[in-house]
Design brief:
This protein has 102 residues and is α+β, with helices and mostly antiparallel strands. The protein has one domain: 3-Layer(aba) Sandwich (Rossmann fold), CATH 3.40.50.300. It is built from two helices and four strands, in the order ββαββα. A four-stranded antiparallel beta sheet has the order 2-1-3-4.
């Protein structure tokens, strides 16, 4: 069976995932394996890299280095990842001038 025909081994998998903003590391060398069907949460103080990690995993932010796969798809391939995810951040970007449908 081809890899794309079977369930991925991990729901989320990262290897050395890093995001730097100039000299500051928001996320550094994240190595993570989450099995399908698991419930997983990020806990930590402000500035710990939780939001940055989620933004990378949802393809909203490009990592500085490292790799990640979501549902078996590399996060570098946005069109392959987005059908497998839903993301509602704490403060979703809403615009007063747009309707709900827009």
């Amino acid at each position: 069976m081809a890899r794309s025909d079977r369930a991925p081994e991990n729901a989320i998998e990262t290897d050395g995932l890093t995001k730097r903003y100039h000299d500051a590391a928001a996320v550094e060398d994240l190595r993570l394996r989450i099995e399908p069907g698991s419930v997983y949460g990020f806990l930590g103080p402000n500035g710990a890299g939780k939001t940055t990690t989620m933004r990378m995993l949802t393809t909203l932010t490009t990592p500085t280095s490292g790799t990640a796969r979501v549902a078996g798809q590399p996060i570098a391939e946005r069109e392959a990842v987005t059908p497998h995810i839903g993301y509602l951040p704490e403060e979703p970007p809403l615009y007063d001038e747009l309707t709900g449908r827009e």
